[in-house]
Amino acid sequence: MSRYTRYAGGDPLAPPVDLAEALASIGEDVMAGWSPERAMREYLRRGAKGTGGQQRTGLDDLARRVAQRRRELLDRHSLDGTLQQVRELLDKAVLAERKQLARDPMMDEGDRAFRQLQLDDLPPATSAAVQELSSYDWQSSEAREAYDRIKDLLGRELLDQRFAGMKQALENATEEDRARIGEMLRDLNELLEKHRRGEDTGEDFDDFMAKHGDLFPEQPKDIEELLDALAARSAAAQRMLNSMSAEQRAELMELSAQAFGSPDLMDQLARMDGNLRALRPGEDWAGSERFQGEEGLGLGDGTGVLQDLADLDHLTDQLAQSREGSQLDDIDLDALARQLGAEAAVDARALAQLERALRDSGYLKRAPEGDLRLSPRAMRQLGKQLLRDVATRLASRQGQRDARKAGLLGEPTGASRGWEFGDLEPWATSRTITNAVVRTVAAGGSATEGVRITLDDIEVTETEERTRAAVALLVDTSFSMAMDGRWVPMKRTALALHQLLSTRFRGDLLQVIGFGRIAQVMDIERLIGLDSQWEKGTNLHHALLLANRFFRKHPDAQPVLLIVTDGEPTSHLEPNGEVWFDYPPHPLTIARTVQELDASRRLGAQTTFFRLGDDPGLARFVDSMARRADGRTVAPELDELGSAVVGSYLGSRTRSPRDAFGGGGNRGGWAL
To answer: Which residue, among 84, 99, 85, 97, has the nearest Cα to 149 in the 3D structure?
Structure first.
């Protein structure tokens, strides 16, 4: 048996969400110091991008539309619709009665004068006038009908406040219909009171629904669902009363006694409201709204609008995702569709699917402490994207080839890649012939008739350099890096270099050292998640100490020293381990820093300084340090920092120190 339902998934031809783009955006925010949880929330707020590049609706846009819908409801409506209708019917009845009194020639003149006096002396308040006329003997059938419609209208409106759709259902209702409603209310109150005492059973609910279920279009499955629906509507009715002016509220309460011409309806409704308040005290019974429009609402419609406003408030809370543990699956899609249309629900469902995909993809992991972090897989994916960007920038300079290739004329890695102009690596013969055969057969030819090899078929063997390098990347983590917008480019650079070494030059070693007031060795995950901190000091001396210790642990590797900084050293370590800080830089700090730089040079380190900023004092210091270390200085723009550092590493790895650095005289070029 097959079951078909209405499709609710949005445009089936819309491109899927690009998880790689999502990860790149989230990773960028994480590098800026945000937690992965916050970064993911902000990405979902802005809206995801599909694989086609178009912007999808985000949480902020949905929240804006919810707020706009709320303003529209308050600015369009007023709450005196029922009072206006009653006044119109009252005026119609009085006018029809006056006409009848004026044209009835058979009426006693004394009686005519007395009736006209009664009509002339009616109180100005609508409720008081209706009450005054409750015992009036109408001479006009049209007037009597209009007055009876007032009582009918009030009864239907009061019921519609508590039971949606009752106003229309009871239009032109008979006395038997009204009697049945009264019976339903009495049975309902008895059921609610038994439930309050804990004496009800499932059979009691079933009996009630069997008798009166057609009056409840929600078709609740048990008494709890019935209570939820009734209490939400009743609380909205109370909020509507709270939102009226004192005069409107008093007038309406007086008119309510005329509902159906009997006070029994109001008694039963008041009894029901009391039961619901006791059973659902958590509903908003005391709230109110300020309506400022001109479109009058009846009691039932007004209660519906108050329910809409409650829906919108709940949606605002759900879209804000501000509660701990909030997820997009918590959003009430049915309420969103009711208030903003089906497309809004589709957009919210797509965002929830994206959130699940990000959590299930393995890009985010839950740490033992409970917070969300980027997983190693996410770090690899981010590094791959950053390295691809770096390679593109390198390849665009001076006609250079793609730097993503692994090594030059060294040990085979076992992998192969497509041939490009200028490649010197040996052919991967089996792969080349296989490509030619597959292409020939796919084109309709036969391998037995001969195979021709084209340039597109050729693959070459990837190789790795035989010489291992020990790379120390020293990154300035002082507050000025974050203050001047250098924080994220620094992290992007470190991640790109880490990705290059971990995937293309696995034999090489990398140690990332962050230096602020003190220096410390950091794994890449810690550096990427590092938030900017206010601390005075740029302790290059300590960073060089750690780098030299790293070089000494690996005497068989070529030391490569890469230093990214935007300030002169202002602190150093004393022999007792205490930090010395002074600004401007103290001669002792400079001396200690130079001492460790000399040690790096004696270890054979190939040194490059990457100077960020245009401070003349920094430029003089860095240039003198580079000359002393027989290294060089590079002053890249921020968006070129990654390609500058990676290019320097590749240059130090594929050439001799003197060639890579131009004998120490090249301070602005690129080592490739």
So the answer is: 85
In three state form, how does the secondary structure of 257-289 look? CCHHHCCHHHHHHHHHHHHHHHHCCCCCCCCCC
147 close to 98: Cβ distance less than 8 angstroms: no
pTM attached to this predicted model = 0.63
**SS3 label, residue 168:** helix
Distance from CA of residue 3 to its chain's centroid? 34
Entry field: residues in the chain: 672
Q: What is the 3-state secondary structure (H, E, C) of 597-634?
A: HHHHHHCCCEEEEEECCCCHHHHHHHHHHHHHCCCEEE
150-160 core/surface letters (b: 16 or more CB in 10 A; e: else): bbbbbbbbbbb
Can you read off the two tokens belonging to residue 542?
């300590």
CA–CA dist 561, 633 (Å, integer):
12
Average confidence (pLDDT) per 10 residues, the chain, 672 residues = 55 58 76 72 75 71 94 93 92 94 90 92 91 91 93 88 84 84 93 94 94 90 94 94 90 83 83 94 93 91 92 91 79 92 88 80 67 72 75 59 41 72 74 86 73 85 72 90 82 86 84 93 83 80 96 93 92 91 91 95 93 87 92 88 85 52 35 30
Alpha-carbon distance of 646 to 504, in angstroms, equals: 12
Dihedral of CA atoms 569, 575, 580, 586 in degrees, nearest 10, equals -50
